[in-house]
Write a structure and sequence with these properties.
The structure is a homodimer. Chain A is of the alpha/beta class. The first copy, chain A, contains eleven helices and 16 strands.
């Protein structure tokens, strides 16, 4: 099983997701600036994968710093962190990954710089394992929410390709299937970048899962005809009250699910929960390049000169969400209480 | 002003809509079989345009028949009609256009065949004019439903390119603008064939209308942020109870509009109303080729071997529709009464 993000012999190794499904190409990165570039250009994407990749970027950056004392080392490491933080604004895991590495460096400030670099390396490597474990755990827990024979709608890619492996929303689907349930999956293609069509359909088909691609605008009609039993989506940032930022179109899926009394589950590791934000109104939504809308595979599809919008995410208010599945358990309304409880059970930072 | 469909010197002249927005290319057709092919391949599309084009196809077919007596003439004309009827199943206007021509031929059966051909030619030509007049009238009536400063969402293309000219949904927008109101239009790109991006945005930009393209999955988020004041869409078939078949995704727009208390208007000529169907459940929904989903501009975008759905239309139940705008007035619930009333004011068939 190829990991989406890995750390092998001092190199960050990622699947170049912009080449899928036509080609499965691995990219090996030794320079933290290339990690930042891979995040910006979405060679690697998906909130949990971004958290791990950002941490690995810090580890690569640390290795490259030639400083004898902690002061100069940490000051240069802060520049590395700033460059990685500046890549994409919405997925909180990216900041979580960076913060965790920086906090570890600070705590280790009395040790020799070489030892700090080794420890940062070790921490980043452990975050790769941790992410995979979290997804499997989340999948086991969330899988119980689905029933044998269900048809499940998912949006964008919250799969193994959005994490180190296994996936969050697709982890829930895999968890249900591994427990012996038979599922059918409908994958929203997810314009403009088509992650549902290019990534979700690809990775589920590789696993032999029964998956069908639909255009985003077909989900409502399928629900009306009784073809969808549940929706499972990922998250890029979950505010303290449960409001969830996820790929543009998730909000529409949630409104449709409510109108048809279909449950919708958000699946995400606790690292996606941002208790510093009271509600989703405070989440910064990335606006990406118009070319993602106007061109496909280098071909212009839109008329020249007509403006387009391209917000990468939207916010689904907590009241539309049936439950939030994490590796530590399932949160239900009122989310302010349930999320705080889950987020506080042994925070990942406690290890350092 | 170029007409989308016209009849010039015994030739059907259409804009090849598969080439837009890259190229504005006219196609001249002399053979009714090519008319059928142009409908099938969607060089010409949009319910009102299909009605007129189908009638013109019958006129061309009639000209090509070499028969001295009505019996042989009509029998051959029935073959022509069957071929045109078999092109696309959902838009009722296509059948309406054929039926109107066939009824005229029958009524004229005592006349010499050459005279019948001339009369059919004349009727088809008058249907071109009639469609344009109906759209302008519909636009004047519907324009009053929009307010100065409104931001209006539309889906697919129910514009001049879906009719002889001026448009239905876009006719309402043009009507409001011509009465002095300032509007902003958001055009859903409308996967898979992108008629909103390729056609609606193109034709509105040509007219200098303030139009912005969005992916279908962005409409919900815009509504939540208060950016949409009204929705206007076209129709391919309206059942007696007001249930409306229109481009796939229209139902989702209607559910979103209801969830945000935004009015949604269906704009269509009375030829789109099919009183023979009690409800939308009886409307046949065309399933088109998977290649429309898996390829764009000849490039494969989907993984090989994964099934896709491609229903061209969905049905929006009448209870979600604020009003139906026709060239004869505005229908509101209960639609069974209001539509029957509008449909019966001087039916188009009364002329022959």
């Amino acid at each position: 099983m190829i990991r989406t993000v890995d750390y092998i012999d001092g190199r960050v190794v990622i699947i170049d997701q912009n080449r899928l499904p036509a080609e499965l190409k691995m990219v090996e990165i030794e320079d933290y600036r290339e990690v930042a570039e891979a995040i910006r250009t979405m060679k690697v994407r998906g909130a949990p994968a971004l958290g791990v990749t950002a941490a690995l970027g810090i580890a690569l950056g640390a290795r490259s710093i030639d400083a004898a004392d902690f002061g100069s080392f940490y000051s240069e490491l802060q520049n590395v962190a700033a460059e990685i933080r500046a890549t994409r604004p919405t997925a909180v895991n990216l900041f979580w990954g960076v913060d965790r590495m920086m906090a570890a460096a600070e705590r280790l400030q009395d040790r020799p710089v070489d030892e700090i670099k080794m420890e940062l390396d070790r921490l980043a490597r452990s975050m790769v394992e941790e992410d995979e474990d979290a997804c499997r755990q989340l999948g086991r827990i969330g899988g119980e929410l689905l029933s044998d024979g269900d048809s499940v709608l998912t949006h964008c890619n919250a799969g193994g390709l959005a994490c180190v492996g296994y996936g969050t929303a697709l982890g829930v689907i895999r968890g249900a299937i591994e427990s012996g349930k038979k599922l059918r999956v409908y994958a929203d293609e997810t314009r403009p970048r088509l992650q549902g069509m290019r990534l979700t359909a690809w990775e589920l088909a590789q696993d032999g899962v029964d998956v069908t691609i639909i255009a985003d605008n077909m989900a409502g009609s399928l629900m009306r005809r009784g073809k969808i039993d549940a929706c499972v989506v990922g998250a890029d940032r979950i505010a303290a009250n449960g409001d969830t930022a996820n790929k543009i179109g998730t909000y529409t899926v949630a409104v449709l699910a409510k109108a048809h009394s279909i449950p919708i589950y958000v699946a995400a590791p606790t690292s996606t929960v941002d208790l510093t934000l009271a509600s989703g109104d405070e989440i910064l939504i990335e606006e990406r390049s118009p070319e993602e809308m106007t061109h496909i595979e280098g071909c212009r599809i839109a008329p020249v000169g007509v403006p387009v919008l391209n917000p990468a995410f939207d916010v689904t208010p907590a009241e539309l969400i049936t439950a939030i599945v994490t590796e530590r358990g399932i949160a239900r309304a009122p989310y302010t209480e349930s999320l705080a409880r889950l987020r506080c059970i042994g925070t990942p930072l406690s290890r350092y």
